[in-house]
Amino acid sequence: MKTLIRAARVIDPACGRDETGDILIENGRIAAVGRDITAQADEIIDAAGLAAAPGLADMHTHMREPGFEDKETIATGTAAAARGGVTSILAMGNTLPVVDTPEQVADIYRRAKADARVHLYTVGAVSRGLASREITDVEGLLAAGAAALSDDGVPLMNAAIMREALLRMKPSGLPILSHSEDGDLVAAGVMNEGALSRKLSYPGRPAVAEELLLVRDGMLAADTGGYVHICHVSTKGSVQYIRRLKEAGVHITAETCPQYFTLTEEEIEKQGAMAKVNPPLRTQEDVAAIIEGLKDGTLDCIVTDHAPHTAAEKARALPKAPSGMVGLETSLALSLTVLHHRLGLPLSFVIEKMSTAPARILRWNAGTLAVGAPADIVIFAPDEEWTVDPASFASKGRNTPFAGWKLRGRVRRTLVDGRTVYDLAEEQRQ
Ligand code: DOR
Ligand code: ZN
């Protein structure tokens, strides 16, 4: 089977390519990239006026299966990924049961084989039951295919477990992904701690809670020579601390999410629980620092922290509503709208942060259109304007704070291993 993508603006940060050309796909892999490829193909995709880039690699998602299938399943979550141009995802392990044994890791891969529309990787937990009391079988989890280790969803409060896990992960070269928020300091907090939380009389989650745990984990990485990756960075102080740790030669990388460079805590006043997320939305000063951190490389990548919840759960009063927002179907457009269209950063910058960098961090065979690479491709209209309509989501989760936003940059087609897994034109015909 041969597919030819014709006359696209081919963007491949891994090869430093950004030019008009064709992409030939053969047997699920990139066979050639260049001008005027004349090979015969079974399928021709006319991409004139569109960009073609390596599919996005989202290293922070919650698929909710098993245990919370009312929120999301691997089938619906990976359909949402495909719709968002995301061709590889990492699923977090705060499911029921928790993914804390090699058997659970194998179970996730069995489910993914049956139901996943894009490449799905899973983490293994660092502590049993995410309880911060007992370390998991690190080597067994890795042998079963865990793509990284993380207790995400809750902070790993036990420094001894973090330290030992960093040491035992070293031979793999893979990171521990840290949900950095000190559990005691965030306790029952429902939003950023500050003037606004005091005005609204809500318990807060202070910036220092995030910074404290990330500095601890950075110090433990320095101490062990292990590798820590900081999840969903949201504060100015975090960016500064990560910058210093990197300058000191610590093996540390970090991610942020579109919500942290587009929204502030004021959304809580406007949208209530729809804007509730951990770590919380912060201030304009933090937003500016996150963007600076992306620009100067302190923040390596952009992920979604796609965290679907049911409408009924999100309809509860703020303190009782669960935290999190969906993101897979809006992340590329939000990043393009803000970073490319508003701030003038090149398209290749956005693709590097959303595809090439996360693939590099987790050592996935992804994030590039080099010859021989899997043909995981997103074709998008960089300038096309569209309006976010949660009713159109493939995700079961409709919990987005971006409903009604006009965004620029629209996914037209997504290919995984050379096969089309999402096609906007087809969706619009239905
Ligand atoms: O807001 C959040 N929701 N943050 C997390 O770390 C976990 C996630 C979830 O699982 O809902
Ligand atoms: Zn988290």
Say what the CATH topology of the largest domain is: TIM Barrel
Please give the CATH class of the largest domain: Alpha Beta
Cα-atom radius of gyration: 20 Å
Outline: globular
Bound molecules: (4S)-2,6-dioxohexahydropyrimidine-4-carboxylic acid, zinc ion
- Overall average residue pLDDT: 98
Q: In the CATH hierarchy, what is the architecture of the largest domain at level 2?
A: Alpha-Beta Barrel
Number of domains: 2
Give me the number of helical elements: 15
> How far do the termini sit from each other?
26 Å
Secondary-structure content class: alpha/beta
Residues in helix, %: 25-40%
Protein described:
By secondary structure, the chain is α/β, with parallel strands linked by helices. The protein folds into two domains: 2-52 and 373-429, Urease, subunit C, domain 1, CATH 2.30.40; 55-362, TIM Barrel. It has helices at 74-83, 102-115, 138-143, 159-169, 183-186, 195-200, 207-224, 236-247, 258-262, 266-271, 284-296, 311-314, 331-342, 347-361, 424-429; strands at residues 2-12, 17-26, 29-34, 43-46, 51-54, 56-61, 86-91, 119-122, 149-150, 176-178, 191-192, 204-205, 228-230, 252-256, 301-302, 377-387, 406-416, 419-423. Strands 1, 2, 3, 4, 5, 16, 17 and 18 form an eight-stranded mixed sheet that branches. Helix 4 (159-169) links the parallel strand 9 and strand 10. Helix 8 (236-247) runs parallel beside helix 11. The longest helix is centred in the middle third of the chain and has 18 residues, at 207-224. It starts with a strand and ends with a helix. The relative contact order is 0.16. The model has no long low-confidence stretch (mean pLDDT 98). The structure holds (4S)-2,6-dioxohexahydropyrimidine-4-carboxylic acid and zinc ion.
